[in-house]
Structure formats: C-alpha cells, structure tokens
Design brief:
The protein is α+β, with helices and mostly antiparallel strands. It has four domains: 93 residues, no CATH class; 65 residues, no CATH class; 96 residues, Nucleotidyltransferase, domain 5 (2-Layer Sandwich); 132 residues. It is built from 18 helices and 13 strands. β12 and β13 form a beta hairpin. The C terminus is likely disordered. The structure holds zinc ion.
C-alpha cells in the first residue's frame, strides 16, 4: 500500500479515491490499471441511500508520459445504485472534469505547449491526444480587446497569412503587446476595428509608426486625429538604395556582356550601395581587375565607366549622408534641386519622398521606428511556418496572441486559465 501511494504521488494523481492496481508494459506504451471507488454518496435524485453496485467498463484516459513512455490510465469507475429510486450514478474524480476525457493536468500541459512555438500536430503527437483536442484548448484562450485603452505610441504593419492574403497588425510601441491582428488590411477592416474605440480613447494616440504604405495614411489621420505618422527610417533608406540598385543594373546593361565594365559593375554591386564613409581601405588582390585594390578604389573605377552612374552615385551618397545625420532641410533641399536632372527611376522616388515629406521629417526628428514590430512580425512568420495548416484565421490569431502577449507573463498565469 505504502509503495502504491508513493507512485500515485509521483504521477501527481491527487485523488485519494483512485487506487493503482497494476502497470502493464504494452511495448509502445505503458498502461496503468486503476480503480476509482469511495463510500456511496447520497442519491442526487431523491436524497436516499445509495449502495455500491458494479464497476463501469474501464475508461481510457491519456496521461502525461512516464519515464519517457506514453502512458494510458485505464480507470474503472465504481457505480452506485439508489436503494430507494433505483437511479444509477458513476463515481466522480477531479482527475478528469465531468464529461471530459482529457485529464486536467494534460490540459494544462497542452496550454503550456501552445505558448512554445510548436505546431499543433506536434503537440498532439507529443501528448498522445488528437489535434482537435489541442484546437479545443486553443479556443479556450480568449483575448478580449480592451476598448478603454490605446497607447500613445503605436506601430502598424502587415504580414501575409495565406498566399496573396495580407493581414494587418498593430502593436503597442512601448510594451510590445499586440493590439490587433486583423484578417485583411483594407481600409474598411481597419476602420471597423478601431471605430470600436470611443473617439476620446482614439484621441490619445500621438504617434503611429509604419513603413511606406500610403493607403494607411488617410485612414490613420481620420481615426487618430492627434497622431503624427512616422515612417520607418530603414524603409526610407531601402527605397533609396533600391532605386540606386536598379539604376546600376540599367547602366550595366549598356555594356557588352563580356566586358570588364559589365562584369565589375555586376560583381561589386554591394560596394555601390554601401555608405561611402564605410568603404574599407584594405588592399586585396582582385582577380576580376587583376590587381590589388581597396574597396574605395574599386568604386572609383566603376564610377569612371559612366557619367550617369557617377552623378547618381554621388547624389545617392549625399542623400544618405543627410539622412543619417538627420538633416531634413538639407535632405529635401537636395531632392528638390536634383529632381529635374535625375533619371526617371530617381524622380519617382523623389516625388514619393516630397509627397510624404512630413512623415519623413518625423522619422528624422523622432526616435521611433517600426523595428520592434518587425521583430514581432518575424515571430509571426515562425509561428506560421511551424503551424502548417492554419486554415482558420481565428486560430492563427489566438496562437499569435498566446505566443506574444502571454509569453512575457508567468507560466502560472496561463495555468490558472485552465
Ligand atoms: Zn434515489
């Protein structure tokens, strides 16, 4: 008896009415035979006296692994019969909730694993339960939107849920908590979501950071009258360097394929895009040129091939300089001045910049960016990749909320939700 009690302790079987009878080795898994029995309770129907009757056919309860083996508890439950009205009743245990087949402890384990970045099928496999059990657990997590709160600083971005289907995501800039994940990114979707907040709450928002995606500007202005839009610095620079790179390719294609010009402009593309202040002065042997050159000297050679390349390279580098030194007046002064003589590729970018001038100036003057939300977005991608077959957007969203908003809190809190 002592020994068995010790085992029930080890298995965390807290119900003292459960007695272990045997443990069978089934090769692939262990089977614990157990009995649930206690003194007859009062009849729930007539409050009369009940008596012990027989045992129910053993119910199979999947349990946590024991010593590395999948484990199944075969629990025989006592049946009671009322002496007065004849009603039957099955013994109850807190091991498994009434009308449930999964032990409470296993449910807690599922909740824990949902926080980790595991696919739902992997969780089901590890705990020997069905995927639908895991999904049912997932659905128990409810994330209510607090309509009385919006942060002063907010970040907006998007990610793709399925091929060609974009979703909208908003994050509290300071706490990093997710505020919204929306199934779609249309103006209507975003408006419907944020209009749930009272105007007074929306007026508290001071800053919204976002990357370059103009359809968001209008809706942001309308919904958040006091908010200033801050474009992400990284994306602004990316815009510029993309134009520079396209221009490099255009010029490269004017040369013969086998010429030195073509081959070197192709090969050293990164040096052209790189901040010229950071070009290395170390000299190495360069097989393409058949001589020893520093990176800076290579750039000089490339620029000597084309006046247009040289002109735009210098313009690009100067813009980068003003941008990194946070000099908006010089940055836009240069753009205005260069616009008429620039190649169409650059003109397009310049016009976009002029149109979004205030948002770019904000980016240069304020210390906010979309970097934190980009990190969140990477996590979302990991979840998406690991959770093959999220056909249902709601389940996907819940999983993201669990992974991102709960992770920061204590696991205890999650367990208390069960
Ligand atoms: Zn009765």
């Amino acid at each position: 008896m002592e020994q068995l009690h010790f085992i029930t302790n080890l298995l965390n079987l807290k119900d003292l009415n459960i007695t272990l009878i045997d443990c069978l080795d089934q090769g692939t898994h262990k089977e614990l035979l157990a009995k649930l029995d206690y003194q007859p309770p009062q009849c729930p129907a007539c409050a009369g006296k009940m008596a012990k009757y027989d045992f129910q056919k053993a119910s199979k309860i999947p349990y946590l692994e024991v010593a590395g083996f999948k484990t199944l508890i075969k629990l025989k439950k006592r049946r009671f019969k009322c002496k007065d009205c004849g009603k039957m009743r099955v013994a109850e245990t807190d091991l498994v909730k009434k009308n449930h087949q999964i032990p409470v402890i296993l449910n807690q384990k599922i909740a824990q694993k949902l926080i980790e970045k595991l696919s739902m099928t992997a969780i089901a496999e590890q705990l020997s339960v069905s995927t639908s059990t895991v999904i049912r657990k997932l659905k128990e997590f409810q994330f209510k939107t607090d309509l009385n709160f919006l942060p002063a600083l907010m970040s907006w971005d998007e990610f793709s849920f399925k091929k060609g289907k974009m979703s909208f995501v908003a994050q509290d800039f300071e706490s990093g908590n997710l505020l919204a994940i929306l199934d779609g990114r249309t103006q209507a979707t975003i408006r419907n979501h944020f209009l749930c907040y009272h105007r007074k709450i929306r007026e508290r928002v001071q800053i919204i950071t976002m990357d370059m995606f103009s359809p968001y500007y209008d809706i942001a202005k309308k919904l958040f009258p006091n908010a200033r839009i801050v474009l992400d610095r990284f994306h602004i620079v990316q815009h510029l360097s993309r134009a520079m790179n396209r221009l490099r390719i255009q010029i490269m294609n004017q040369f013969e394929r086998k010429s030195l010009e073509y081959r070197t402009v192709k090969r050293y593309w990164q040096l052209i895009l790189q901040d010229s202040r950071k070009l290395s002065d170390k000299r190495f042997y360069r097989p393409t040129f058949r001589m020893h050159l520093t990176n800076r000297e290579i750039v000089q050679k490339l620029l000597s091939y084309s006046e247009e390349l040289k002109h735009h390279y210098e313009l690009y580098q100067l813009l980068l300089f003003h941008f990194q030194e946070k000099q908006p007046d010089e940055f836009f002064g240069l753009i205005q001045e260069a616009l008429p003589s620039a190649l169409p590729l650059f003109q397009t970018v310049f016009r976009t910049f002029i149109k979004d001038r205030d948002k770019i100036v904000n980016a240069l003057e304020l210390p906010y960016s979309n970097a934190k939300l980009e990190a969140t977005n990477n996590l979302i991608k990991v979840i998406k990749r690991n959770a093959f077959g999220f056909r249902n957007f709601d389940n996907f969203r819940t999983r993201i909320f669990i992974a991102l908003n709960i992770k920061k809190e204590k696991t205890n809190l999650v367990l208390s939700r069960c």
